[in-house]
Predict the 3D structure of the following.
Amino acid sequence: MYLGLDLGTSGLRAILTDENGAVQAEAEAAFDVAHPHPGWSEQDPADWIRACEATVDAIRQAAPDAFAALRGIGLSGHMHGATLIDRDDRVLRPCILWNDTRSITEAAALDATPGMREITGNIVFPGFTAPKLAWVAAHEPEVFAQVAKVLLPKDYLRLWLTGSCISDLSDSAGTAWLDVGARDWSAEALERGGMRRDQMPELVEGSAPGGDLRATLLSEWGLTGPVVVAGGGGDNAAAACGMGCLGEGAGFVSLGTSGVLMTGRDSYAPDPASAVHSFCHAVPGRWYQMGVILAATGSLNWLARNLGESPSDLSTALPDAATGPSTLTFLPYLSGERTPHNDSAIRGAFIGLDVAMGRTDLTRAVMEGVAFALHDSLTALTGTGARFDTLLAVGGGARSRFWLTTLANTLNLPLSLPSGSEMGAALGAARLAICAATGETPEAVMTPPATAEVIEPDANLTQAYTESYERYRALYPALSSLG
């Protein structure tokens, strides 16, 4: 049996699977995010430990015999967080999370440093780890002076599980300290960020062993051991492992709070200027690229909140299939935008409002605007040489047939809907554990899910959506000029 632990921003999800990926038990535990100042987003790492204890206890109760056969644990987690520990492994301050924007100035300075983009393969975004440490050095020097190790969130959980400071390459690629092409820490990037290599964890591939479960936990959990803890992966890399998206042409689109268009790559082909993220994959010899928009279902949630209705009610008021683009255009820049604009100051807009329009018109425009923003990511990704032979559609927004048909027509790509089998980051973490414990290859373990349905673009509508997208695309320069 293999345990997948997915450390999310709002909670931890655990699933127990057998060697074939069949789920034996699952559990979740929630925790909070603190916002002590505008733009700040922090978490107490002790909450992650309590959540892990709670979910493991729940799984032990639900499936005691299966849990007793545990041989491997895989870790997935939200990326970029700065968890600072001293020489005695004590946490020095709350973890600064991926969506914390306090280090805008430090990020801009690092990004402007000659060679940083070439080394890391990415723009240095404020959400990345390196600028957070630069902020701590400038504003909390007494804390910075005590930093013995910087751990990403899932790797602090690993420290508790194993006693070892280890990270995987896919998660570490989002720090702006890693040479993503060479798959190793960069001495130059560390020096420019004011850090040392001894402050970094040891690196392993995500499908390789990354420590063993501590003897005290083996005893507390009633295990005979040994239990290997895999290197694991950042959340999107782990999700790709759960969906079998490893190499060229295999990708997914996620309609979650944020939106992600991701594809595996067999080689390293960064394009930082496009704001495409180019990271190491969680499996050896592969990379992945993704475009990220900051408000996908977040845009629908925003509209629902302001109309005093639920997102599901707004969605169900629309037909099952899109019949053509709206004359109303929505730009979903509610919190700025990542790909392709890298613009934290831009804000959203409706263009073309008419007195006859109502809530369904607004809902339709919001869904189209998100689809157009993801088309921006598609354009940026294909510009690096990426291709999409298959594109799985996942996330809460994928429950809307109208949204899916709009997206298929906008991207002019078929969308595959996976069948009801478990997938995603928690399953990906469990699959990484299988590889680490058994030596099986990722290609043998990380197979795609069965397809329940394929939504094809409508050839009679794709040209109209292309024209509407071009109108949308032309609005960004006009909108940004207003700021």
